[in-house]
Write a structure and sequence with these properties.
With 194 residues, the chain is of the alpha+beta class. It is built from 5 helices and 4 strands, in the order αβαββαβαα. It has a 4-stranded antiparallel sheet with strand order 2-3-1-4, covered by helices on one side. The longest helix is centred in the C-terminal third of the chain and has 40 residues.
Length: 194
């Protein structure tokens, strides 16, 4: 009975993932410094980084700080609840980070049972060429999601909308004339009553 009480209780951890977005003009050296800082935070608070992945420069759903693209970095780690607060505090302090999000993946994990592949913890540089940006823009146009050029069907649509505006304007003028006539009739009725 004394041996059971002497054994330290297991402190259960949780598994989290954090994705953060860097400004698109951040160079590889600065991105590595940020990853190093986050690794230090995780190690200092008895956490274990299990996966680190650079997703590269991607198009954002909407512009953030006048940027339409950003560098996405993915972290998966096991730690305690104070780790998330400290990690997010550090991300807020970095000017290069424009957005981040942390998600709880699993609860009640024994930190001693976590295995880590060293290959998963290397920060790899992803270089994007101009060709992929052009291919993305062309694909968006083919799906009808991107802006169309002046030589495409967009001009015909503009002409049709101008014709519709003219028709609506003439229709509203006729309606105004009719309402003026009805106002004149009501004025005549009032004069007859007096």
């Amino acid at each position: 009975m004394a041996t059971a009480a002497a054994a330290a209780p297991i402190r259960w951890a949780r598994e989290y993932e954090t994705i953060y977005i860097l400004r698109p003009d951040v160079d590889n050296e600065k991105a590595e410094q940020i990853v190093g800082r986050l690794k230090d935070v995780i190690a200092r608070l008895d956490g274990t980084l299990t996966k680190l992945d650079n997703w590269g420069k991607r198009k954002l759903a909407y512009p953030i700080q006048k940027n339409s693209r950003g560098i996405f970095v993915y972290l998966r780690y096991v730690g305690f609840n104070d780790l998330v607060a400290e990690l997010e505090r550090n991300l807020r302090l970095l000017d290069e980070v424009v957005r981040f999000q942390t998600v709880l993946l699993a609860e009640d994990i024994d930190p001693a049972s976590v295995s880590v592949d060293p290959e998963d913890l290397q920060y790899l540089h992803v270089e994007e060429t101009e060709e992929t940006e052009d291919a993305e823009a062309e694909r968006a146009r083919s799906l009808g999601m991107g802006p169309r050029g002046a030589d495409e069907e967009g001009d015909e649509d503009a002409d049709e909308s101008d014709d519709m505006d003219d028709a609506e304007a003439s229709g509203s003028e006729e309606a105004d004339d009719a309402s003026d006539d009805s106002n004149d009739d009501s004025d005549d009725d009032e004069r007859e009553e007096d």
